[in-house]
Amino acid sequence: GSDWIKLLVTGAFESVGDDPRNVAFSPEELRAAVDEANRHGLPVAVHAHATEGIRQAVAAGVRSIEHGTYVDDETLHEMARRGTFMVPTVYVGDFYSGGDSGSDKLRAQAKNDEYFKHGRADFLARILRAHKYGVKLVIGLDLGAGIAAPELYAKEFAVFVEAGIPPMAAIQAGTRVAAELLRWDNR
């Protein structure tokens, strides 16, 4: 009865005991998971920050990369060529940095704060390059239902514009392109 399969291909920023640059699956495991999901007509989304994890997931044929923090230009070009979507979810790091939620909300607060201070600007530059290369960018927040007030979801639009993406492209990322990712083009 699932609509999607989501794999956590790399570590994360907001969890204790892992590193967002670590890769958790081999290329063969990813390919097997994607092949099996495709056999059932299910799209695969992957949580991936690390360059190698993103590269392997794109090669395996996933539908979307959730995050993509350390994606390189070669992989961005391949994503554009294959039509792989990217849902950066930048604002989740902003939320936990203390701006809207207050600091010290995470057990891994230091890891998130380090990213916010020293990695966020580089990630925004990667998102702009993704846009310029033709990667299908989608607005997403990654805060989960019931955790954040609904109006916080709109802040990801502002983050896209901050990255240099034209406002209309940001609006499309949260509407038309998001619907395409979900296969809801006809809704």
Strand order of the largest sheet: 1-2-3-4-5
Secondary structure category: alpha/beta
* Total helical elements: 9
N/C terminus separation: 21 Å
Q: Helix content range of the residues, please?
A: 40-55%
Please give a structural write-up:
The chain is globular. It is α/β, with parallel strands linked by helices. It is built from 9 helices and 5 strands, in the order E-H-E-H-E-H-E-H-H-H-E-H-H-H. Strand 1 (5-8), helix 1 and strand 2 (44-48) form a beta-alpha-beta unit. A 5-stranded parallel beta sheet has the order 1-2-3-4-5.
List keywords for this structure.
single chain, 187 residues, alpha/beta, 5-stranded parallel β-sheet, 9 helices, 5 strands, 10% strand, globular
Task: Please describe the topology of this protein.
Elements: E1 5-8, H1 27-39, E2 44-48, H2 51-60, E3 64-67, H3 73-82, E4 85-87, H4 91-96, H5 109-118, H6 120-133, E5 136-137, H7 155-162, H8 167-174, H9 176-181
Parallel strand pairs: 1-2, 2-3, 3-4, 4-5
Helix pairs in contact: 1-2, 2-3, 3-6, 7-8
